């Protein structure tokens, strides 16, 4: 697959939040403020890229040579959990400034099913290493894009005259549904 | 033989997880980061440790 097509497809057309409804917990939970959503977005990009590359290497250099492909799911879960712990530990010890910005989102990322989805997708679709890298950046970038757009809309909604029954999470879900319809119109822009 | 390798691999990954978790718990947070919590109160998961305030119980 063309790398540009893969990037645009993962970023916009097959957006992980709006087409597959993955990562809904941080999508709803961390989208109440724009600053939070930007921090969460960068943390998700970093963790998904690292976890996907490690999962790819684990699969093709350990699981496949020993015929242990059936262990894919459990080893990926353990690897992702270990990677998030390692990143948090590393940031605590070596980059306190970065920890202050991103560290609070790391425990939330372990519950983000998008991380496991991207690692699995890279294997099941048979991507090469370069394609894996592109997909592992584009998919979380799509997550961040939607999160930032959604946070911006929600910030404006706080000052809007919303009917009492729709205030808070109900109007957020309606907005998410409208966004999903809007993004579905992008289907077919790349081959 | 492959069963042995599978068990060893899972145990190693599990051990690494436990070790990193303990190291993480022992390592103090940097100054000024003691009570950092995201403003995350809108999802319905009441027992999430990120939640600042407990969910209101329905009467």
Word description of this protein:
The complex is a heterodimer of chains A (191) and B (59). By secondary structure, chain A is mostly helical. In chain A, 73% of the residues lie in helices and 0% in strands. Chain A has helices spanning 3-13, 24-29, 34-63, 72-94, 96-102, 106-109, 113-124, 129-158, 169-184. Chain A starts with a helix and ends in a 7-residue tail after the last helix. The model of chain A has no long low-confidence stretch (mean pLDDT 86). Chain B has 59 residues and is an all-alpha fold. Chain B contains 1 helix and no strands. Chain B has one helix spanning 2-26. The chains are: A mainly alpha (191), B mainly alpha (59). Chain A binds chain B through residues 25, 28-33, 36, 39-40, 62, 66-68, 71, 74-75, 78-79, 81-82, 85-86, 88-89, 92-93, 96, 99-100, 103-105, 107-108, 168-169, 172, and chain B through 2, 5-6, 9-10, 13-14, 16-17, 20-21, 23-24, 27-33, 36-45, 49-50.
Which helices and strands appear, and what pairs or packs with what?
The complex is a heterodimer of chains A (191) and B (59).
Chain A: H1 3-13, H2 24-29, H3 34-63, H4 72-94, H5 96-102, H6 106-109, H7 113-124, H8 129-158, H9 169-184
Chain B: H1 2-26
Helix content of chain A: over 70%
Report on the biggest sheet of chain B: none
Return the string of H and E elements of chain A.
HHHHHHHHH
Strand content of chain A: under 5%
Morphology call of chain A: globular
Got a strand count of chain A? 0
Distance between the termini of chain A: 9 Å
- Which residue ranges of chain B are poorly predicted, with pLDDT under 50 across at least 5 consecutive positions? none
Mean pLDDT of chain B: 75
Query: Helix proportion of residues of chain B, in percent?
Result: 40-55%
Q: From the structure provided, what is the oligomeric state, counting identical versus distinct chains?
A: heterodimer
Q: First CA to last CA of chain B: what distance?
A: 59 Å
| Percentage beta strand of chain B | under 5%
| Shape field of chain B | elongated
- How big is the Rg of chain A? 18 Å
Strand tally of chain B, please? Answer: 0
Order of helices and strands of chain B: H
């Amino acid at each position: 697959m063309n790398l540009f097509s893969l990037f645009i497809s993962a970023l916009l057309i097959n957006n992980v939040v709006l087409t597959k409804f993955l990562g809904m917990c941080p999508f709803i939970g961390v989208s109440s403020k724009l600053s939070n959503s930007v921090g969460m977005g960068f943390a998700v990009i970093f963790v998904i890229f690292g976890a996907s590359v490690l999962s790819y290497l684990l699969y093709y250099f350990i699981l496949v040579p020993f015929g242990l492909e059936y262990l894919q799911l459990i080893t990926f879960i353990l690897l992702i959990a270990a990677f998030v712990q390692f990143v948090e530990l590393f940031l605590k010890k070596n980059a306190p400034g970065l920890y202050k910005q991103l560290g609070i989102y790391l425990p939330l990322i372990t519950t983000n099913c998008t991380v496991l989805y991207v690692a699995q997708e890279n294997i099941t679709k048979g991507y090469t290493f370069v394609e894996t890298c592109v997909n592992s950046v584009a998919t979380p970038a799509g997550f961040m894009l939607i999160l930032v757009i959604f946070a911006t809309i929600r910030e404006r909604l706080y000052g809007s005259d919303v009917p009492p029954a729709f205030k808070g999470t109900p109007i957020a879900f309606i907005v998410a549904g409208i966004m999903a319809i809007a993004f579905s119109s992008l289907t077919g822009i790349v081959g | 033989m492959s069963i042995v390798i599978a068990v060893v691999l899972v145990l190693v990954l599990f051990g690494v997880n436990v070790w990193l978790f303990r190291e993480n718990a022992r390592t103090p947070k940097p100054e000024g980061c003691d009570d950092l919590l995201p403003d995350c109160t809108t999802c319905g998961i009441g027992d999430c440790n990120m939640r600042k305030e407990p969910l209101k119980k329905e009467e």
